[in-house]
């Protein structure tokens, strides 16, 4: 199916990270309590004057990735800090939750994302007396970032979304506990009926 034209919201672009060495141990983790995310690929260009006119040249793409978040005790926030001190490589994904593509069979929705690898080169921590502690982390990206489509696992989706739940005991995070999600097409009094088809 084709994508529908939508305005992308900054709040729906979120960063997932993982140490590259952990790729076989765990899925990527959402950085909690993000307040800002900046993705800045750029190239330097130069021009040389010739007798036939100017000829331009470009350098390789250089990308800087920066995330600001409220400081917290999530293990992935600690791993980001340790990656800086230990010189460990990091994988990072910018996931656009509001840019969605449905597969041709209609069964699975995928979201648009950028994938990159690199290093943490700065981790600034501000601790003002009248505010929350904040972190500002900058990554230097190796090579050229790649864009594509990915599916979120139930756990990853649950990091920033949750299901409607009833009052019963819930056996796990996906248990609706006797609840049924509101249906905009069917619920509410005096719903207009679909026109009859011949």
UniProtKB/TrEMBL annotation:
Residues 170-198 are annotated as: Disordered. It comes from the Bacteria. InterPro entries: Phage_69_Orf23_MTP (IPR022345), Phgtail_TP901_1 (IPR011855). This is Phage tail protein. It comes from Companilactobacillus ginsenosidimutans.
